[in-house]
């Protein structure tokens, strides 16, 4: 399928002729909010016999009685289970219940009642068990409130092909109202609250609350069960085990205290389970088994195993020759002490992959917060990118300065797996040992769509990577100051020059629909035409088909 540039795509959207999603259907759930249930309802972290049901009660009382009900039908005539619980100020009046003994692969409807009001109705589904022929997944990430409405979420709610949502991080952003996105947020009336950068538990709670007032968010959460892993902005930009790029201890206090606050608020406001005994809340990884069709392992790559990112500015003046560049890549970037995931995470991953292979499942999926494909920056100057059009005022090692990184063929980002090549090789080695060389990475973080192949350091195929654009966060090339024509050319340069990049697009916001069957995976990169207004249209800007190729997987047309 040919790649459409932004102008072509938007023109075709306006004409209604791009491979659009099936005509939008009215959601079977009721996303409307009420004064008591202003943040809607949600479900998530499903297993075959249970699922987390979530809501938040708006109340000034220390505690508020809440009743809940689960049924097989949206009219609640066929009740499965019901009960009573309490919304407490100690948990910011958030409520989670986990009904057990449910039927595998079954659809249920649920709602809550408190203070004389009834919540919107939510729809959820348990994980299937036994034979399964089809699974529809929405891959989504990077929902940034001031940059626009979460129209991709609304589109997912209306997408009849979707059965479960996988969010791979940056569910909220920590920035203040005067920081990244401020100009756009002011123009459309979506400035961050609280107005300052969030640091305390109360701050993080208020930011989560703001994000769940978005109509698209409420619709998506009410329509589908939710699977999540976090990335960086749920706490602060580019965290590692000992700190974060966007945490300044001299003005923002102790990093461990801030991180604990962010994690506590996340567990309160998301439809997720508490950790198993012996595990901390920071060890947020999960294994999901979808019958005999697929296993999904979600990664925790921020707070339990990640070493500090390499700062290019420290090494800029030392990289002056091919030899010093190679020494930097060998001794600094490829330092095996700089890990991405913890040993306990590795054990969970190895176990999940080995069990999936032994069971003969066709698909092994990795919920992955940041790109894993190799993206060593090509020599963009030699490939026709005009240096006069480069964004101004950036240091040589900063993101927009592709010319310096391209001259020395350095990683596009040091915060992705490219910045931890030894850790990536360890990941691949672990997967090969488990018999899994057919991984399908479902990736967020980059604000761009990607179709990538992935190989180990010896060139052996390890599978494929599908990357999603942001829900509202803008693509890096456009946002960092490149004009549209050059940004479009950069997409082509990356795809044509990098062995592991098949296609990329930094112009759109949206999500990736992945429909798995036993023989193939049908992939659609679904874009919304605007995030500046709550009314929008959707279009499929690219389609892919993934098939098995011996011990690995590949795109159907090579």
Can you characterise this structure?
The chain is α+β, with helices and mostly antiparallel strands. It contains 14 helices and 24 strands. The strands form five sheets. A seven-stranded mixed sheet has the order 11-10-9-21-22-23-24, with helices on one face. Helix 2 (151-158) runs parallel beside helix 5, helix 4 packs parallel to helix 7 (255-269) and helix 10 packs parallel to helix 12 (421-433). The model is unreliable at 1-30 (pLDDT under 50).
Task: Draw up the topology in text.
Elements: H1 6-15, E1 41-44, E2 52-56, E3 63-71, E4 79-88, E5 94-97, E6 107-114, E7 117-118, E8 122-125, E9 134-140, H2 151-158, E10 164-167, H3 182-188, H4 201-211, H5 215-223, E11 226-228, E12 239-240, E13 243-244, H6 249-252, H7 255-269, E14 286-290, E15 294-298, H8 312-315, H9 322-333, H10 343-359, E16 363-368, H11 402-407, H12 421-433, E17 439-443, E18 449-455, E19 461-467, H13 476-479, H14 484-497, E20 501-505, E21 509-517, E22 520-528, E23 538-549, E24 552-555
Parallel strand pairs: 9-10, 10-11, 15-16, 16-17, 17-19
Antiparallel strand pairs: 1-2, 2-5, 3-4, 3-6, 6-7, 6-8, 9-21, 12-13, 14-15, 18-19, 18-20, 21-22, 22-23, 23-24
Helix pairs in contact: 2-5, 4-7, 10-12
């Amino acid at each position: 399928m040919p790649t459409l540039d932004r102008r072509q795509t938007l023109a075709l959207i306006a004409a209604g002729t791009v491979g659009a999603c099936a005509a939008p259907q009215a959601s079977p759930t009721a996303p409307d909010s009420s004064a008591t249930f202003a943040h809607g309802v949600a479900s998530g972290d499903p297993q075959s016999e249970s699922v987390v049901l979530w809501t938040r009660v708006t109340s000034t009382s220390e505690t508020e009685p809440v009743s809940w009900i689960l049924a097989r039908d949206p009219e609640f005539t066929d009740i499965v289970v019901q009960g009573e619980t309490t919304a407490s100020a100690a948990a910011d009046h958030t409520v989670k219940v986990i009904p057990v003994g449910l039927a595998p692969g079954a659809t249920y409807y649920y709602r809550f009642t408190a203070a004389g009001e009834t919540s919107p109705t939510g729809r959820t589904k348990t994980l299937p068990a036994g034979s399964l022929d089809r699974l529809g997944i929405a891959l989504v990430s990077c929902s940034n409130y001031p940059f626009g409405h979460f129209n991709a979420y609304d589109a997912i709610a209306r997408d009849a092909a979707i059965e479960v949502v996988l969010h791979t991080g940056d569910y909220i952003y920590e920035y203040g109202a005067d920081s990244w996105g401020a100009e756009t947020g002011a123009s459309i009336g979506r400035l961050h609250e609280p107005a300052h950068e969030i640091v305390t538990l109360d701050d993080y709670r208020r930011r989560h609350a703001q994000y769940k007032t978005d109509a698209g968010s409420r619709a998506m959460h009410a329509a589908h069960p939710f699977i999540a892993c976090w990335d960086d902005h749920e706490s602060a930009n580019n965290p590692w085990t000992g700190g974060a790029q966007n945490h300044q201890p001299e003005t923002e206090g102790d990093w461990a205290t801030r991180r604990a606050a962010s994690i506590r608020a996340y567990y309160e406001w998301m439809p997720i389970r508490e950790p198993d005994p012996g595990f901390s809340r920071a060890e947020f990884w999960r294994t999901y088994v979808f019958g005999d069709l697929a296993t999904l392992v979600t990664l925790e790559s921020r707070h339990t195993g990640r070493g500090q990112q390499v700062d290019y500015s420290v090494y800029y003046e030392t990289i002056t020759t091919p030899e010093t560049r190679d020494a930097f890549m060998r001794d600094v970037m490829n330092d095996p002490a700089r890990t991405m995931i913890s040993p306990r995470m590795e054990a969970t991953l190895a176990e999940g992959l080995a069990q999936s292979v032994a069971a003969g499942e066709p698909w092994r999926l990795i919920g992955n917060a940041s790109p894993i494909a190799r993206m060593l920056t090509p020599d963009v100057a030699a490939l026709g990118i005009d240096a006069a059009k480069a964004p101004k005022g950036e240091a040589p090692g900063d993101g927009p300065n592709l010319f310096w990184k391209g001259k020395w063929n350095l990683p596009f980002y040091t915060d992705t797996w490219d910045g931890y090549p030894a850790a990536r090789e360890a990941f691949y080695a672990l997967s090969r040992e488990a018999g899994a060389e057919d991984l399908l990475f479902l990736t967020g973080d980059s604000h761009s769509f990607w179709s990538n192949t992935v190989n180990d350091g010896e060139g052996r195929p390890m599978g494929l990577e599908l990357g999603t654009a942001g829900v509202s966060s803008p693509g890096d090339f456009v946002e960092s100051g490149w004009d549209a024509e050059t940004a479009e050319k950069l997409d082509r340069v990356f795809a044509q020059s990098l062995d592991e990049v098949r296609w990329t697009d930094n112009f759109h916001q949206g999500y990736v629909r992945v429909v798995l069957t036993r023989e193939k995976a049908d992939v659609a990169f679904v874009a919304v035409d605007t995030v500046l207004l709550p009314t929008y249209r959707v279009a499929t800007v690219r389609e892919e088909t993934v098939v098995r190729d011996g011990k690995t997987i590949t795109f159907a047309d090579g």
